[in-house]
Automatic annotation (TrEMBL):
Taxonomic superkingdom: Bacteria
Names of required cofactors: pyridoxal 5'-phosphate
UniProt domain Aminotransferase class I/classII large: residue ranges: 77-386
Gene Ontology BP, a term: biotin biosynthetic process
Gene3D superfamilies referenced in this protein's UniProt entry, alphabetically: 3.40.630.30, Aspartate Aminotransferase, domain 1 (3.90.1150.10), Type I PLP-dependent aspartate aminotransferase-like (Major domain) (3.40.640.10)
InterPro entries reported in the protein's UniProt record: Acyl_CoA_acyltransferase, Aminotransferase_I/II_large, AON_synthase_class-II, PyrdxlP-dep_Trfase, PyrdxlP-dep_Trfase_major, PyrdxlP-dep_Trfase_small
Protein name: 7-keto-8-aminopelargonate synthetase
Gene Ontology molecular function: any one: pyridoxal phosphate binding
A family per Pfam: Aminotran_1_2
Organism: Salegentibacter flavus
Keywords associated with the record: Pyridoxal phosphate, Transferase
């Protein structure tokens, strides 16, 4: 399967964000000569603003504005000097006020991102370890990443999973002096909280455990003196806790603040904290505004503001509970997340609300899993009850319209968020005049229909799948047992528009990771064979490669057919509960499919390149060589033809038991050496079937020596549609480089397919460089995936950075 490379991931994110931008949901520009916080103007339209992170509305307070203006008048627009040399005159007052707010030593930073980059490498020693909640803010994760260059172990856990956290603590406690768990106090997407009291209990149980909280979204609207959500629970800051707050959101100014109870840590960070040492300090205006805000925080007025906001939050909650809108997390924070499921549904709904006069944020990949797209609604003191009610009324009216227009329903939304089948009155199932037939076995399908559609590829024609079904059942190892599902979609005239098959089984998660990650994980699998494995529902099977989806894109109803298939796949998901859903082996250049699936909540990932050979217009070797490029002809003479007298080539329908066992060992050697496509080892029963089937044959390469040593084997399938498929390869690496065994096998495969009169060779995935040298055409392939959450991808990404 696919390997997610960093650039591939970035390309995917850019593509998803481009779709969001084109839909009018992001990268908008506010307009107008002034801004009051309650409304925002976009494209000439005044909208009620439900997207701010200034929950108390202090950014519009006249005292903060006057503080900023007076500071500029007194000290200029900036004080261009590092704080390590001189802090401008207002800094000492701000530091004193922030110390009063928290009651503990503090360090002021330019912003929270630079703050984390300065603090984390300073407080985490080389003999410490780090555990990340996988939803902790990107700025924290980014600051942790350089620690791996110092060999600091970094682990990741599922969101708020204390059982997993305790397991990681036990793993690290024997080799780490301190173990830092890093989490948000309040999470910015769903508005949920860290389990702070439970974490403090773990700190007592494990003396090595220290906590690093990013509480930037919890600041000001909660806690004594607005010290934040974390402090509202803790009351006093324990010695083993470091806290980060921000002055750039609800506080109404700019900058961030680190808080700790250990004066030594504070001095260490203040004396030398990376970017805190070398970056220019906060502008006088920012400090002036922050001083004014801090004075409000230290007065009783902050509690009146908190109460006003709490009243608006309560009103929103109360009114929302009277609807069937899918609120994902119920709490008392100012952040609410209404699930939409598919990106196109979320984009559609955002635009409907804008049309009705309301602005909300869109939450989408990579901030949340692609199928967990939704509306991130924030409540502030600027919002009045009438517009809060108006927003909810608009949501109730527009949500079912958005669902219908994007051909989905509330049941699918609830399933995407793991909410079960409830509150279905918002939508009705979609109706289609296309007919969809489902099958549990290939024997239920007409062979002619199958082989003329999806079965005209690789070794999954009708006969091949019948064999696969028999082989991949009742095996001793769970990874060798698959369930198969088949779908045929026809129009009213019984024309086939779509045909495909899926399989369900256990896959290695690092099939989606670079080779370096697989190398590291395979060491762990020596004692834990199912480490980082998950259940997967995939087009095709783990064994097969090629075009697993027949889709007639010339039909005007292909999108309707594909959407119908996706609905059926969701029904399977509900029953099977796979961690991954993978639609695989698509041409990268198919932009129509890409746009369609990304809007349905699938993330595109790059796959190893595929290769096919179709140039059979030659009769003998010289003519074949002339079809190659000049450089490839040279490779042919030096790497293939030069060894013809030293090698013996055999084509066999059947192997002796010893030959079969030896060939299987050669396959294992290739499999273990090729972690670029890391799969479970195929069962020996598959090779026994090959040996007994008339559709499989073997190309063997022996050394022309006294022992006739077997050094290479190609396991080849003869598809009923005259497609030749070298599905599996085995090599002896003691001789492979000396005699260029792999290139020999590729060439012999071409000779054999030409001899049989076949029209195409499906060479499969990987090794495109080698296959191109023998004349194969290289095709860039991709897959589209959905996951229950982003944890597995992010955890593997941390292994990639190791």
């Amino acid at each position: 399967m696919a390997k997610i490379k960093h650039n591939n991931f970035l390309d995917t994110v850019v593509s998803v964000m481009t779709n969001a931008k084109d839909s009018g949901a992001i990268h908008l520009y506010a307009e107008g000569d002034s801004f009051n916080g309650r409304q925002i103007q976009i494209k000439g339209k005044r909208l009620y603003h439900f997207g701010t992170t200034g929950y108390l509305g202090l950014e519009q307070d006249k005292r903060l504005k006057e503080g900023a203006i007076n500071a500029i008048k007194a000290y200029g627009t900036e004080f261009p000097l590092s704080k390590s040399y001189i802090s401008h005159p207002l800094y000492s007052e701000l530091e004193s006020l922030m110390t009063d707010i928290y009651g503990h030593p503090i360090v002021i930073t330019k912003n929270s991102t630079l703050g984390h980059m300065g603090v984390i490498p300073s407080v985490v020693d080389d003999n410490d370890g780090v555990i990340l909640d996988h939803q902790v803010h990107w700025s924290v994760q980014s600051a942790v990443n350089p620690l791996k260059l110092r060999s600091v172990p970094v682990e990741m856990i599922r969101h708020n999973n204390l059982e997993m956290l305790e397991s990681k603590i036990k793993k690290l406690q024997s080799k780490c002096r301190k173990i830092w768990y890093m989490a948000d106090g309040m999470y910015s997407m769903f508005g949920d909280y860290a389990p702070i009291e439970e974490l403090m209990m773990l700190c007592k149980k494990y003396p090595q455990l220290h906590i690093y909280f990013d509480d930037v979204h919890g600041m000001s609207w909660k806690g004594k003196h607005g010290s934040g959500y974390v402090m509202s629970i803790l009351k006093e800051l324990p010695e083993k806790v470091i806290l980060f707050g921000t002055m750039s959101k609800t506080f109404g100014a700019s900058g961030a603040v680190m808080v700790c109870s250990d004066k030594k840590i504070q001095q260490r960070v203040k004396n030398f904290g990376g970017p805190l040492t070398f970056s220019v300090q906060l502008e006088p205006a920012a400090v002036g505004a922050a001083i004014a805000s801090a004075k409000i925080h230290l007065s009783d007025e902050i509690y009146k503001m908190q109460e006003e906001l709490a009243g608006r939050i309560s009103y929103f909650n109360k009114y929302l509970q009277q609807t069937n809108l899918p609120l994902i997390v119920e709490n008392d924070s100012p952040v609410f997340y209404i699930g939409a499921g598919m990106p196109e549904t979320g984009f559609n709904l955002v635009n409907r609300l804008i049309k009705n006069g309301y602005y909300v944020n869109i939450g989408f990949f990579p901030a949340v899993p692609a199928k967990n797209t939704g509306l991130r609604i924030t409540i502030s003191r600027h919002n009045q009850k009438e517009e809060i009610k108006g927003l909810i009324d608009s949501l109730v009216e527009e949500f079912p319209k958005a669902l219908k227009e994007t051909k989905t329903n509330l049941e699918r939304v609830n399933f995407a968020f793991g909410r079960g089948s409830k509150n279905l009155s918002l939508s009705k199932p979609n109706q289609s005049s296309l007919s969809l037939d489902t099958y549990n076995s290939i024997v239920e399908i007409d062979p002619i229909l199958w082989n003329s559609t999806v079965g005209g590829n690789s070794f999954y024609d009708w006969n091949g799948l019948k064999s696969l079904e028999n082989i991949l059942t009742d095996q001793n190892s769970p990874e060798h047992n698959n369930q198969f599902y088949y779908y045929i979609i026809r129009d009213e005239n019984q024309n086939c528009i779509l045909a495909t098959f899926l399989s369900f089984g256990i896959w290695k998660e690092d099939m989606l990771a670079p080779k370096s990650v697989s190398v590291a994980i395979e060491k762990i699998r020596e004692t834990k064979p199912y480490y980082h494995t998950s259940t997967c529902l995939s087009l095709g099977s783990m064994i097969s490669e090629g075009d697993h989806l027949y889709l007639d894109q010339n039909s005007p109803r292909w999108k309707e057919a594909l959407n119908l298939l996706l609905e059926e796949i969701e029904k399977l998901e509900k029953r099977l509960q796979p961690q991954y859903l993978i639609l695989r082996d698509f041409d990268v250049g198919n932009e129509a499919i890409k746009s369609f699936l990304q809007n349905k909540g699938y993330v595109q990932v790059a796959m190893p390149e595929s290769a096919v050979y179709t140039e059979f217009n030659w009769g003998y070797q010289k003519e074949y060589v002339n079809t190659l490029s000049k450089r490839s002809r040279k490779h042919f003479r030096n790497d293939i033809e030069a060894f013809k007298d030293k090698l013996e080539i055999k084509i066999k329908d059947n192997l002796s038991q010893s030959e079969l066992e030896k060939s299987f060992k050669l396959y294992i050697a290739v499999k273990d050496n090729n972690l670029g496509l890391n799969t479970f080892t195929y069962p020996f029963s598959l090779f026994q079937h090959m040996n007994s089937s008339s559709q499989w044959e073997f190309i063997l390469i022996n050394l022309n020596d006294t022992h006739r040593t077997l050094v290479g084997v190609m396991f080849c399938y003869k598809n009923s549609e005259k497609i030749y498929t070298p599905a599996v390869v085995g090599m002896d690496y003691k001789f492979s480089r000396e005699y260029n065994i792999y290139r020999q096998l590729l060439y012999q495969t071409i000779l054999r397919a030409q001899q049989l009169g076949f029209i195409r060779i499906d060479f499969g995935l990987t090794a495109g460089f080698e296959k191109r040298k023998v004349g194969a055409k290289i095709i860039d392939k991709c897959a589209y995936i959905q996951t229950r959450d982003n944890f597995a991808l992010e955890a593997l990404d941390w292994l990639r950075k190791d």
